Amino acid sequence: FFKNLFKLIILSNLNKLYFNYFWNPLLNVIIKKVQLEGGDMEIVHIKNPNFEMMKKIVEIEQEAFEGNGNVDLWIIKALIRYGLVFVIKENDKIVCIVEYMQVFNKKSLFLYGISTLKKYRHKGYANCILNETEKILRNLSYEEIELTVAPENEIAINLYKKHGYLKEKLLEDEYGKGIHRYAMRKKLIWF
Fold it and tell me: Closest Cα partner for 143 from 107, 112, 176, 170?
């Protein structure tokens, strides 16, 4: 009984912390400082970006998605304002990004995109940002994350599977004739 009560008190305090943290729209907040292969880094929740920061995010997306499905300045501003955008900064340089948007009328999020600068890939950045942001999302009581991924993007599919995402179905012609996607989903909270 006391063990469960203690967990409840801790979760309650964490939710208060996250509530206060998420409702301060003026600050970009450092979530965690960690060390990976590349060196010291910060995971930052972007809440009030300047124009230069948004341009850097768009550049990383363009490099990662090669002009197909990446965000532009209009989309990234909306994702920051109405969704959740997190970045990994290494020595003040953004090297990895993840963007989430809330699914209307559900305790679910859509993982809009995740990208890492090419020279920083295969060093654990994507794994790190997914692990850390999923902890935050669980504490905010989100129940699941949905995403779509190109069937030929085996690197991304394997990353998502490693993190517990399951393929649900193939969405044929999702973005036009012959442009298919897998729908994948992960439960954050098990009942």
Answer: 107
Adjacency order of strands within the sheet including 181-187: 29-36, 39-46, 84-90, 93-102, 108-116, 144-149, 181-187, 166-171
| E strand residue ranges, 47-188 | 84-90, 93-102, 108-116, 144-149, 166-171, 181-187
User: Residue 135 and residue 157: Cα distance in Å, rounded?
Assistant: 21
**Cβ-based neighbours of 51, under 8 Å, separated by 6 or more:** none
CA distances (Å), origin 104, targets 44, 46, 101, 107: 25, 22, 9, 8
Residue type for position 140: L
User: Cα–Cα distance between 55 and 57 in angstroms, integer?
Assistant: 5
Band (30; pLDDT cuts 50, 70, 90):
low
The pTM assigned to this predicted structure is 0.80
Q: Kindly indicate the confidence band of residue 7, based on its pLDDT and cuts at 50, 70 and 90.
A: very low
Count of C-beta atoms within a 10 Å radius of residue 89: 17
Q: How far is CA 34 from the centre of its chain?
A: 17
pLDDT tens-digit series, residues 151-187? 999 999 999 999 999 999 999 999 899 989 999 999 9
CA distance 121 to 126: 8
Q: Cβ distance 150 to 181 under 8 Å?
A: yes
CA–centroid distance for 48 within its chain = 17
